[in-house]
Amino acid sequence: MRFEEELVALLPRLRRFARGLARHPSDADDLCQAAIERALKSRDQWQRGTRLDSWMYRITRNLWIDERRAAGRRGVHSPIDDAATQIAGDGAAEVEAGALRGDVDGAMARLPDEQREVVMLVLVEGYAYREAADILEVQIGTVTSRLARGRETLMHYLGEAA
Amino acid sequence: MSVDPIVVAAFVDGELDDLTARRIEREAASDPALAAAIARHRALKERLAAHYAPVIEEAVPDRLRALLTAPDALDTSLADRRAAKRSRFEAMHWAAIAATLVLGLTIGLRPWQPTTEVVSDQGRLVASGALARALDTQLASNQPVGAAIRIGLSFRDDDGRFCRSFESRTIKGVGCRDGDRWALEHTLRGQARGDYRQATSGEMAAIAATMMAGEPLDAPAERAARDSGWGRR
């Protein structure tokens, strides 16, 4: 199959991953577009015989992190003000958890980026820990600990805690 | 519950070998708490899967598909010229972003002030300034986006001290609570270079893994430790 055809076949899954990272559909598709353009430009760097999906997820994720950091430097407000959540403390978090019950998007938005991407890769995209670690270029132990923290937060907000 | 939460998660994620998985299944039959934990993990996974599943069914927007289905055999010379133009633009675009980052960073670090993140006290390196503040207060589970210092893992070492791995552009390492200070155990130069990605977070996690007794602190335990001033118990 041609490189482009393989990418077309990947698009639905890639859009789902991007939706998890970027939340808003148009932002997610912008991210996909940037990732496809990057992939076409650096297609020589992909080694035939290795997994194209992992390579594409890595490109997408790295572009997203770049974008988030650039936005942070520009002082653009992210939808959730992490600093404010942190200062507000546990009482506010409890109140918020009640309001968020059932809102998966809202709960996901409250995860730090590095936990959200692991949650998407393992719990939604179904990658093994080893594969997720390869995509993110981190140790497998980092994947398990971020995943544990992410799960805990999601269960808290979605009301699935014990 | 007799089983570690990380193992429960690994069980639900299909990461355990068959033998261990069967052991967990057997234990769940007689351990209601374990069975409930497994059910909670499964419910969360199913809920997330169901939430994102509709995206797969959506029609892929034309603007994405068009990038990959353009008749490239038709006019390669034009396509090449366009590609060349686009990549030049993109290089400039990224260079501009990089310049913004460098400027932001320089302001953030206040280059007219000496670096005071680390001081030497009777031959021991201890954290000070912004680093000490980050180690004192910043939660790994809830860090400001773009924080200058990022906390990696928080854990207890074999001596029962709280330790925290950290990373900034200029320095990375592990700080362990020593009285009211953070003694720096493994300190390396950060990678103060153009690449803005943290390719080495894994390295600090690996060092942390060799130091920790048991598991890293989860979010509530980390918060509790911070709120108690990182004291020994």
What does this structure look like?
- The complex is a heterodimer of chains A (162) and B (233).
- Chain A is mainly alpha-helical.
- Chain A folds into two domains: 1-76, RNA polymerase sigma factor, region 2, helix turn helix motif (Rna Polymerase Sigma Factor, Chain: A, Orthogonal Bundle); 82-162, Arc Repressor Mutant, subunit A (Orthogonal Bundle), CATH 1.10.10.10.
- Chain A has eight helices and no strands.
- Chain A has helices at 3-22, 25-41, 52-74, 82-100, 104-109, 113-124, 129-136, 140-158.
- In chain A, helix 1 packs across helix 3 and helix 3 (52-74) crosses helix 7 (129-136).
- Chain A is globular.
- Chain A starts with a helix and ends with a helix.
- Chain B has 233 residues and is of the alpha+beta class.
- Chain B has three domains: 5-57, no CATH class; 71-109; 118-227, no CATH class.
- In chain B, 51% of the residues lie in helices and 16% in strands.
- Chain B is built from eight helices and six strands, in the order H-H-H-H-H-E-E-H-E-E-E-E-H-H.
- In chain B, strands 3-4-5-6 form a four-stranded antiparallel β-sheet, with helices on both faces.
- In chain B, helix 1 (5-12) packs across helix 3 and helix 2 (18-30) crosses helix 3.
- The radius of gyration of chain B is 25 Å and the shape is flat.
- Chain B starts with a helix and ends in a 6-residue tail after the last helix.
- Mean pLDDT of chain B is 77; it is low at 72-78, 103-114 and 194-199.
- Classes of the chains: A mainly alpha (162), B alpha+beta (233).
